[in-house]
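Now for a specimen:

…
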Amino acid sequence: MRAIALDHFFCPSYGGPIRNCVQTIPRIATEGEGAAVIRSISRLLLAVAGCFALGMTGCAGTYDLVTSQRFRADPFGTMFKSSDPMTVLESNPEGDERVRAMRDLKEPKRNGGSDAEQDKVVGILQTSATTDRRPLCRLAAVEAISKFDDKRSVPILLAAYQNAPYDAPPEPGQDITLAGGGRNSRIPTSTFTPETVTVLQCTVLQSLGKYRDPEGLRLLCEVALSPTPKKKLLVEQASFLGEHMGPTESDRMDVRMAAIRSLGNYEGDPKAAQVLVSVMETERDVAVLGRTHEALVSVTGQDLPADPKAWTEWLATGGKMRKKSGLFR
């Protein structure tokens, strides 16, 4: 990279090149102008450092960093010093700091840590992924636990999916009367937007496919087979919970599509194949059919066309599945 001379930078307070500005600081500091010049240079250097960090860490991460409270208090320290993620999660309640720590977190057991450290980390992530009232913290916890090989990851992800619509989970046995006389114990008052709920649930469903767990498969099949709610029901829920809470048809479709895509990870699984064929037989939406076909090809190893009849016939004749090295047993 070519070095750029300080003469190329203009110092607003001095009115000339920054090199001359720097050389003049000792003289003008005694004349009462030093503070203004130093502030200008500090702002310039901080902007250059921010641009460098932006290129190194990416736009989103740097924006979160430079808008945090810690950056306002200690900009240089925040930009170039990293705190231990566990220390932050144990002692710092600030949301953006916790999000950053969870993104940097590594699974203790896979990195030489003890069982006690593993248990502590899993406990923190479980609480944040299922009950944190801050959406970004909850999403960061879901993403972090989905990278763990710990057997407790799947139960935590399942709970995170069920609790996604609530900023605070409902009390056990809590029943809420819906408009029209129906009752549902799983629709509490919440400040989470439909977009927040959708992102949380889609992230969970996409993560479950990685584990190929039977309980995860059960939820994925349930969501994949659930038809998109009718507009009448969506409006009914919105009238009860407020406009910002009624999930849109598009939101629910996104969740379904995430479940179908995740089923594609269950290579050679008969149940996953049967559910996907059922979706092919009953679905009319082109986008859902396309995603289902992709998942079926991945699960079965069969390169059949995106035609429900072809897959129904394949299933009726035994539904033999192939993998790269041959037939599944």
About this structure: Residues 83-150 form one domain.
